[in-house]
Design goal:
Elements (H helix, E strand, L loop, with lengths): L1 E5 L10 H10 L4 E7 L3 H13 L4 E5 L12 H14 L3 E10 L7 H18 L3 E6 L2 H12 L5 E3 L6 H9 L3 E4 L9 H9 L5 E3 L21 H12 L3 H16 L2
Parallel strand pairs: 1-2, 2-3, 3-4, 4-5, 5-6, 6-7, 7-8
Helix pairs in contact: 3-4, 4-5, 8-9
Length: 259
């Protein structure tokens, strides 16, 4: 079982890393993909601690749309920051999370698009997959992926909470769709219907921890061990048993990230 997206390098986990990792292993997790904010030395240091505790973890490095304003339109700084950290991180397997967030708009939208485009171009150059964050920006996100990816960049739409149309657009680009704890929420009926539409060979599972803990842990701090609830829900939606869904989602992770 794999948590394809978590933030174990977040300071929230700093004092409890050993316990969190131990619980993940006890829950049967093979590995996790830890998301790192490019240029964040605290996260980089904590990621090294995570790797010492759990050598099978892998990482992704990118500039989140919330932080895009820190770079403005300085494309060279974006490229240098992400490229150098990828090169210095032996566990890095992807550029991410990157994308657009028009819900919070912590960064101007034109700046978000510039930073996003730059990183997709870099991923294409480096032949790395991308981990995509998109919120209330479906059309622009897909446009950037088509225009800059040019059909050569693989990736995943992480923590998917969008429409069936967005899922189909991602699938048409060859992307994977990753579901998190929201899939288990009582009010997530439409999202569960969308999850049924995604073929099992394109599904991934994640926690996005420490956020969005699934039922029955909703309201608590999330952690990788809780991904088991997402796998179970997806198995129920597709009418297969949990080990089979686990096999599919694990194989999909390996296919994309080549860990």
């Amino acid at each position: 079982m794999i948590d394809s997206h978590c933030h174990l390098a977040d300071e929230t986990f700093g004092a409890e890393l050993e316990g969190v990792v131990a619980r993940a292993k006890a829950a049967g997790l093979e590995r996790a993909l830890v998301i790192l904010e490019a240029g964040n030395e605290q996260e980089a240091a904590q990621a090294r601690r995570v790797h010492e505790l759990w050598p099978d973890v892998r990482t992704a490095v990118g500039i989140h749309p919330h932080a895009a304003h820190e770079y403005g339109t300085d494309i060279e700084r974006v490229l240098t920051t992400v490229r150098e950290q990828l090169a210095q991180t032996p566990t890095a397997r992807a550029v991410g999370e990157i994308g657009l967030d028009y819900h919070y708009d912590y960064s101007p939208r034109d700046v978000q698009r510039t930073v996003f485009r730059t990183q997709v171009r870099l991923a294409r150059e480096l032949k790395l997959p991308v981990v995509i964050h998109t919120r209330e920006a479906d059309a622009d996100t897909m446009d950037v992926l088509r225009e800059e990816g040019k059909g050569e960049v693989a990736g995943v739409l992480h923590c998917f909470s969008g429409t069936a149309d967005l899922a189909r657009a991602g699938l048409d680009l060859g992307f994977y769709i990753s579901f998190a704890g929201m899939l288990t929420f009582n009010n997530a009926g439409p999202l569960r219907e969308t999850a049924r539409l995604v073929p099992v060979d394109r599904l991934m599972t994640e926690t996005d921890s420490p956020f969005l803990a699934p039922v029955p842990h909703r309201g608590k701090r999330n952690e990788p061990a809780f991904v088991t609830h997402v796998v179970t829900t997806l198995a129920q939606l597709h009418g297969i048993d949990v080990p089979e869904m686990d096999q599919h989602t694990t194989a999909n992770f390996h296919r994309l990230f080549r860990p």
